[in-house]
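Q: A reviewer asked whether we had any structural model of the full assembly, not just the individual parts. We don't, so I'm hoping you can provide one. Inputs are below.
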Amino acid sequence: SAVISQKPSRDICQRGTSLTIQCQVDSQVTMMFWYRQQPGQSLTLIATANQGSEATYESGFVIDKFPISRPNLTFSTLTVSNMSPEDSSIYLCSVDESYTGELFFGEGSRLTVL
Amino acid sequence: AQRVTQPEKLLSVFKGAPVELKCNYSYSGSPELFWYVQYSRQRLQLLLRHISRESIKGFTADLNKGETSFHLKKPFAQEEDSAMYYCALKQGAQKLVFGQGTRLTINP
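A: Here is a predicted structure for the entire assembly that you could use as a starting point for your response.
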């Protein structure tokens, strides 16, 4: 099973700034996803990070707000741009190694925007 | 629209009692459903999937297409079962849609 490392694990940011979250996987994976979990809410898929091409965003999420990079099969970044308090969430990186629906998750990045 | 509903945000049972976490879904195609679990201070992980029809840690879940349900059950709860449980529906080739989650607490 894939081992996923996320950085930072938590951060406190000021309104209007941007933060980039990194996701490193210990093996090459095709499918990599970014989820958001707002306080008291479920996990919501932000986008699928595609290697070598633009990410595929879900309804309600746009590239200008959540730019994603996927330079290779083991690494991805998610940037939360121009942050507001509503962006305070846990952001989770996940991978699907085998197209079975079994996702492996990072430990999450807890972001607080003041 | 595809949707997963877990009607109980919180569920508390006594050790040794049966436990059932409810999950209902709406999906136009043939559903693939999963239960994920997050123990305290651990990352979210797969508990079981309906395709494999297996029992994990004493838990089972049966897909009932007539009732569009995928309830998670265990006949005798243990304290280590206390966790957050999420029901999830596979949408398309690879995306998962998650329910709101149920926090299960097993009382000694």
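A: Points you may want to mention in the reply: Chain B touches chain A through 20 residues (CB under 8 Å). DSSP finds no helices and eleven strands in chain B.
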